[in-house]
Write a structure and sequence with these properties.
single chain, mainly alpha, Arc Repressor Mutant, subunit A, 2 domains, three-stranded antiparallel beta sheet, 7 helices, 68% helix, elongated
Length: 131
Amino acid sequence: MAQATERLQRYLEDELGECRSEDVERRLEELDTLERALGEARVETELDVLSALANETRYTLVRVLVAAGEELCVCELAPLVDVSESGLSHALSELVDSGLVEGRKEGRWKKYRATNRAVALVTVLEGSVDE
C-alpha cells in the first residue's frame, strides 16, 4: 500500500506541479468513494455474469437465444452445442443463475429465452469488434 501511495504522490506532483500530503489524502478519499459506489454485491453480480459468458458452450447458447429473439426449447439448443444432456442442463442453469437467460417449463418441454441483460451485453460485444 505504501508503494501505491508513493506512486500516487508522484503522479499528483506531475499533475499539480506540487503535492502535499493533504492532496494525497483527498485523492485517496475520492477514490475510496468511487470504489464504495460500485458496491461489493454489484461487483460480484457483474463478475458472475462475465464468468457465465467465459465458456464457449454458455456463450454460444446466449448468442443463439439473443439472435432468435424468442424462446427456444432445449431440444432446439442441444444440436448447437457439443455437450452431453447433463452438460447442456448445467450450462443453462448457470446462465439462469447469472440472469442472462430465463427458463420455463411447458408441459414436458423446457424453454429458454435471453434476458434484456443478455441482449444488451451481446449488443455491446458486437459493437466492440471490427469485422
